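Morning. Coffee machine broken again, so started the prediction first thing and wrote up yesterday's gels while waiting. Chain of 288 residues, entered below exactly as on the submission form.
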Amino acid sequence: MSERQLPLFQKNPTSTEDFTTQTPFNATWELFADHLTAQGKSDYTTVAFTADLDLLGQHLGKGIPVGTITTRDLEGFLNWLEFGRGVPCSRKSYARRVTTLKVYFRWLHELKVIRFDPAKEILQRSGPAPLSDVLAPQQIVDCIRESHTFTFRRGKEPDTRPPMLLTLLLESGIKKGEAMKLIPANILRDNPAAPELEVRFKVRNVFKERKVAVSARWLGLYDAYMAQYHPKQEIFGCTPGTSNTCLPTSETVPACRSSSRSRFAAGHARSTTCAPACPSRRSGRSSA
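Came back before lunch.
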């Protein structure tokens, strides 16, 4: 731990050298995000991890000194996530939040800001994840029909984004993060009757790159969307923190509510596309 004295009235540390055991928990988040970026973590991982820390701050107090957080505090937080918060915590979300705690407190411990790592003794749960929910054929029809009922900026003109995006997710099965990175150059239309979607990644994930077939009908929806929204770079123009406002949910497309779940999200479209009986598979389209 550094003996460097903090400048008077400084609100947040500007370097990890400024950290002490009394540094407020939330004053470390920005530098932790910088650390994740330097380690090559994706924007989505960084956003998810910092959101997890914000949840811990809601439970313990965002200004709690980092040196006072104990293993019992973290165990209480995880118990609160499962049983006291009032919001469902899936196995996947729980596992990621445990990972967040381990990465964050190991980082502080390696910096010698804290004497012991309170997350080291936290057990990570293992085991098979539950089967994904898929949409029934009639639910797919209902969702697509409902997506055509929205109007552009509360006017009378139909909004082209909901049907275009929903159809894209159902046909391609790409992930939310992949959809958000799409640019016009990724739409391959050399053969208008059989267009393709090019999913690209940075060098370290180049093995994930692929081409996915989409329908000529979707290409028409895409052209209408581009004419209405005029995006400058990314097709959907979302940031990681606002992506949910661009993607269809059960709140924006009520017909997408299923009998087994109360929310519809991009993951449901992906699971539906990947299901063996999905119409896109029967027609020979590639599923992610």
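The two ends are 47 Å apart (CA to CA). Going to sketch it on the whiteboard this afternoon.
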